[in-house]
Amino acid sequence: MRPLASAAVGSNGGEAVYAFMRIFSLFLVVLALMMLGADAVTSLEHQGQISVRSFEAIWRLFDAGGAQAFKAWTDHALPGFLAGIIDSALAIPAWSIGVIGVILAFVFGRKHEAA
Q1: Which of 9, 57, 64, 110 allows an S-S link to 53, with CB 3.0 to 4.6 Å?
Q2: Terminal-residue alpha carbon distance, the chain
Q3: Cβ-contact 109, 3 below 8 angstroms
Q4: What total of structural domains would you count in the chain?
Q5: Co-location of 39 and 25 in the same domain
C-alpha cells in the first residue's frame, strides 16, 4: 500500500520532496519532544505543579516585545474572530507541534513498490 502523497508526486523530482518532508517531520517531532521534556523539567522544579508552555510563552522567551506587538497588531488590524483564532492558536501547548510532524511522517512515509 502506497502512502497518500505518493499519488500526487511523480518520479521526476518527487524523491527530493519526499526526503525534505520526511526530514521536516522528523524535525517537528524532535522539537515537540524537546518542548515536552522542558515542560517536564519545569514541573519537577516546581515540586510537581504541572507547567505547560504555549507557543506564545516560547515566543516571549526569545522576544517579549515582538509577541506583544503582534498581539496588538492582530487586535487592531484583523476582525475580531480572526484575532481570537490567532490568540487561541498561540495558546496551544508548544509540544503539540509534534502532532503535525507525525501526520506528515505518515503522509510522506516510505514508498513501497508494487510487486
Answers
A1: 57
A2: 11
A3: yes
A4: 2
A5: yes
State the burial class of residue 46 (Cβ atoms within 10 Å of its Cβ: 0-12, 13-18, 19+).
exposed
Domain span at residue 60 reads 54-92
Q: Are residues 68 and 112 in the same domain?
A: no
For 93, phi and psi rounded to 5 degrees?
-55, 140
pLDDT tens digits for 23-74? 999 999 999 999 999 999 999 999 989 999 999 999 999 998 998 999 999 9
Report yes or no on whether pTM surpasses 0.85: no
| Amino acid 43: pLDDT | 93
Amino acid at 37: G
- Does residue 62 sit in the same domain as residue 108? no
Helix locations, 1-114, DSSP H: 14-45, 55-62, 64-77, 80-90, 97-107
